[in-house]
Amino acid sequence: MNSHYIKYLGLLPIFVLIQVLILNEILFFTYINPYVYLALIISLPLKTSNWFLLSYAFLIGFLIDLFGGSLGFHSTATVFIAFIKFAISKITIPYSILEDSDEITLNKIGSKSYIMFAFIIVATHSTIIFILEHLQFNVYILAKIIASTLVTLILLLILEIFNRDKK
Fold first, then answer.
1. What pLDDT score was predicted for residue 163?
2. Tag placement on the chain: N or C end, fewer CB within 10 Å?
3. Nearest in space to 89 (alpha carbons), one of 61, 132, 67, 121
4. Domains in the chain with CATH codes
């Protein structure tokens, strides 16, 4: 499991830089903002210790908040999805399909399970961020949540396909 910690800590600056320098600067259709850094939290093995998962999620969110100029929105959302990740996996991932140290990937759990798992995580994350940002809920916010969730999910699937072809 220690190799996973090192791998994910090494990937952290890459994903944070991509998010802050590229994706946060490009707003698709003026209000869609994909959050590719969620791939790190989604793919962490389910048997990752809680202290690492929550600390790692907080660190990702904190760095995105720090460099993006937001007020803790990402920290709150990433810690919350890290907290509910195991419960969501119980609903969406077939029982005993993963070993203790297996990462959650499209190949490992299948496309239907991966899409459902990632969709719930990404939709929850987007909902928390946009409601905290605007402190209200209306049709515009709902459209932002849906659009950002779908674009993020598409980018996560593209990342998974590239990772599958690389292996």
1. 81
2. C
3. 121
4. 2-166 (1.10.1760)
